[in-house]
Every structure is written in structure tokens, then in C-alpha cells.
């Protein structure tokens, strides 16, 4: 599983025109359970995604299709982790050994 942070590399007025396409991109990935959650950082300097377990190379290819990245207004940072403890109802996220 991965935590992905998104950092805007351009001012918000340059990012904002790409927001609808980025939202569509996120909704598609969430509908396919590629991403499990997505939201804005506070303050609004980017976002954060929780991505499903997959080969990191696959995630990199997916993130490269982000409209923000394609239009040069954001970058991603990826941290892989193994969820060992989860809250009730989130057991399907737990690493199976």
C-alpha cells in the first residue's frame, strides 16, 4: 500500500483550470479501487492519496497520467508501507502474511 503526497509546483490560479480533469481522473481510479482515498492537504498546497498495494512501477505509470502532472502543475511523492494494524471495518487493508 502507498501514501502519495501531491505538491503543487505552480500557483493555485495555474492549478485550478486542471482541477476538473484531475477530479475525473481521481474518481475513475477510486471507482476501480486503485486509489482508496484522496483529499486536499490543509493548507491547500497539494493533496494526499492512499493507493492500493501493487508493484511500485505500476503506481508510477498511473501517477504519470495525472492531469496535474501532464500539465506541469504538480509532482508526486510515494511512500510504501505495510498496514499491520487497522481499525474496525478496515481489515481488508491489513497486510496478509
Question: Can you walk me through this structure?
Answer:
The protein has 97 residues and is of the alpha+beta class. The protein is built from four helices and four strands, in the order βααββααβ. The chain has helices at 12-15, 19-31, 56-63, 67-70; strands spanning 2-8, 35-40, 46-51, 74-80. The chain has a four-stranded antiparallel β-sheet with strand order 2-3-1-4. The longest helix is centred in the first third of the chain and has 13 residues, at 19-31. The chain is elongated and about 40 Å long. The two termini are 14 Å apart.
Instruction: State the separation between the terminal residues, measured CA to CA.
Output: 14 Å
Number of strands: 4
The portion of residues assigned to helices is 25-40%
Give the low-pLDDT segments. none
Order of helices and strands: EHHEEHHE
**Proportion of residues in β-strands:** 25-35%
Average pLDDT, rounded to a whole number, is: 94
Computed CA radius of gyration, to the nearest angstrom: 14 Å
Count of helical stretches? 4
The order of strands across the largest sheet is 2-3-1-4
Oligomeric form: single chain
How would a crystallographer describe the biggest sheet? 4 strands, antiparallel
Structural class: alpha+beta
- Apparent shape: elongated
What labels would you give this structure?
4-stranded antiparallel β-sheet, 4 helices, about 100 residues, alpha+beta, about 25% strand
Strand and helix layout:
Blueprint: E1 2-8, H1 12-15, H2 19-31, E2 35-40, E3 46-51, H3 56-63, H4 67-70, E4 74-80
Antiparallel strand pairs: 1-3, 1-4, 2-3
